[in-house]
Structure formats: C-alpha cells, structure tokens
Amino acid sequence: MITNKDHFAQLPKEIKQGFSELNIGYHLRKANITKLSGYSCLTVFKLIFLLVFQYKNWFRAFMSKRSQDLPGKDTVYRFLNTPTYHWRKFLLSLSSEMIRLLQPLTSKDRVTAFVIDDSVFSRNRSKSVELLAKVFDHSTHQYLKGFQMLTLGWTDSFTFIPVDFALLSSPKKENRLQEINTNIDKRTSGYKRRQEALKSKPDVASALLDHALEKGIIADYVLMDSWFTQAPLIEKITNKGLFVIGMVKQLKQRYVYNGERFTLNQLYKLAKPHMGKKDIRGSVYGIPVKILFVRNRNKRSEWLAILSTDTTLENEEIIRIYGMRWDIEVFFKCNKSLLNLEKEFQGRSYDMLISHTTIVFTRYILIAWQMRKEEDPKTIGNLFYILCEDVKDIDFITALQSLIDLFQTLAEAEVSLNMDIFKNQMNKWLATIPNYIKQCLNISVCES
C-alpha cells in the first residue's frame, strides 16, 4: 500500500491557487489524460511541472537523495510517452479557460489578436529522435537538427497565452533523418500529430486557427511576420472571418492597384512621391488590402511594409496593433531560457516532445496568470473594475520605435529580430513576474 504517495508533488501555495483557479485537473481529465491505478496523472503532471522551480531536470531529480520518494522512472516516461493522451485538447481547454478569466478584466473595446510564428526546437546533438529533421534557422541562417515549433498565441497586448502548437518535421523526405514509429496505433491522437508534422507550415497554421475558433477562442486580428504573410494563407484566414496584419517582403507576389498588377517595390515607388500619405490601397487574390510603408529616415533606401486586410484602420493603429506581435518572441525566449523547453527531457519518442512542450507551455500560462493578478488591480474585486483603467496597452510610439529599430538588422531583403528591441521587451516581461516565481527560477530580485 502506498501512503502519502504525492507529498513530493505538493505545490507552493501561490502555484496551488493557480492550479485551482485554472482547473488543471479538470482539463487533464477532459483530455483523457487519466490512469486507472498507481500515481494519478495529476500527481505526475505536478511533479514534472515543478522540476524547473526546484532547479532540476528529471535526471538530477532521479539521482538526488529524495529519489526514493519519487515515482519510478518508468512511471514518468510512460506518462510522457502515451500516444492516447490528447495534449492538444488539454492546451486548448486550458488556454480558453485562461482567456475566459481575462475577459472581465478588460474593456470590450480593447483589441485582441492571434499571433502566428515559429521557432526552432533544437535537438542538434540527437540522432534517433522520431521524425528528427534538418530545419532552417532564420536567425542564424543555418540548418540544424530538430523541429519547427509553429505556435498560435492569443494576446491583449498585456498577457500572452499559447493556444496551440505543432512540432513540424519536414515535408521533404530527404530532409528527414528519422521517420514515424510504425508501431503507433493509427487511431490515436499521437499518430495524428505525427501526420501533422509532415505538412507544410501554412497548412498547419490555418489548422491551428481552426482549432482555436472551434474552441470558442476569438480575436480581432491575426498577426504574422513576413514569412507567413503570403497570398494563399491570407486568403484562408480572411475566409475564416478574421483580419490579417503582417509584415510583407519583396517577393514575386503581385498586388492589384488601380486595375494594374505591381510588385511591392513598384508600389513603394508609386507611394514615394506622396510619402505624406505613406499607404496604398489595393488587393491581393481579390482581397482588399492596405499596405503601409515605413521609411528609414536615416537611410531612405530602406523601408518596411505592413499589410492589413482591415482597410478602415488608421496608419498609427496598424503599427500599434502589429507591435503586439513582439509578445510571442518574449514567449519563445522565456520557454527556452527559463522554463527548460528542449532541455529537461531527452527522450526519443514524438509523444514525449509533445507532452513535455505542453507542460512547459502550462508553466508559462500559470506564470502569466499570476503576473496578471499582481499587475491588474481589477482582479482584487469588482470595486476596482469600475475605478481602474485597463492595464496599459501598447502605445503607438513604442510600436513605431520597434519598427524603426528593425532597419538596423535589414539584410538580404529579410528582416530579423533586433536584439535591443527584444532585450527591452524581455526585461519588461521579467520585471512583472511575481517575486516568489523569480526566486524559484533563480532570477535576481532587487527591491527598494
């Protein structure tokens, strides 16, 4: 008989409250993440969740003096490797719960947005990981071994919530170093995610939006960088009833303006004599769009272009809303540098990659919830709902400065993330983390 078998997974009171408020156990059961005997799935989930806050990965925890109090290695690995657990359903259910809790804290006029972006999930030292592939890292312009972590998030410019994700291998067989495990039951959700890993990024991005909309998660806009802002995906998104705002780059894509077809560079030359106006209205794939040009005052040959399918927006509002996209860059950095994405477990099965990534995203969601409660006085009670303004929205000047600073990193007609902008955004995010979480994550805390 096992007595007090989950004492090692006891949550600190602040995190325990967050688990209760976000109904973590309910969402696990709803996603069929359950067991009939032994340690419960919630207990094992808590154990893995807490590893990062105890300065340990699983190997160090298992080798510690307390290892005799922990579940066996097989128990944890079976939990992470089970293909029948519906981790996508869990994350969608949890994120929609979080967004529901945020709705009473913001005014109905506040802009919300979906953000689509990808980041390299590196397994560069691995050889036998299921569906491992050579993927291109746009930040280093090199091929690495790993996956493309395509992520859909939701933001109100103060709180970012990961809604869904896909770990993409490569559609090209020659780029895949490993294939699907043939022993996986094709009826399971794990097998379906393996099939998804072989699809193209635009197709999967559209599917991620479908999952969110089917769950009842809504937003005003879809924000994307230049890799995604291309005609086929724009058409798919607008057909879902959503507006797109995204950076565009100079490709062979044509835009119709005054009945004629133009490249982006040709449109810029048309707008250049009238830069007081700074925007041109045309169409792509028959979809009306507004393209806003932002020129580098210090080097007039450099410019950026932002496309919006909502042609009623003012230029300043387009820039301000697009600035909300930076939230996902902070999210990626936080998960990799603070929350042990990629590093905590080194298993070979695709199911483990999916399950552990979902648990890391859950850590971020819980931290985001605690941050919002500390920073937003309306969570204290209904009295403050009337007396207090919304938490600060991103302002036009901040968003514009972020765009202008991007000119420093223009290279080969591609726009990459400016580190000064990123560090500024990251520091702002870190400053708002509750102190007890900073201490758990070994982040320096200075109080006056």
From TrEMBL:
<dbReference type="InterPro" id="IPR012337">
    <property type="entry name" value="RNaseH-like_sf"/>
</dbReference>
<dbReference type="Pfam" id="PF04693">
    <property type="entry name" value="DDE_Tnp_2"/>
</dbReference>
<feature type="transmembrane region" description="Helical">
    <location>
        <begin position="36"/>
        <end position="55"/>
    </location>
</feature>
<dbReference type="InterPro" id="IPR006783">
    <property type="entry name" value="Transposase_ISC1217"/>
</dbReference>
<feature type="domain" description="Transposase IS701-like DDE">
    <location>
        <begin position="73"/>
        <end position="249"/>
    </location>
</feature>
<keyword id="KW-0812">Transmembrane</keyword>
<dbReference type="InterPro" id="IPR038721">
    <property type="entry name" value="IS701-like_DDE_dom"/>
</dbReference>
<keyword id="KW-1133">Transmembrane helix</keyword>
<protein>
    <submittedName>
        <fullName>IS4 family transposase</fullName>
    </submittedName>
</protein>
<keyword id="KW-0472">Membrane</keyword>
<dbReference type="Pfam" id="PF13546">
    <property type="entry name" value="DDE_5"/>
</dbReference>
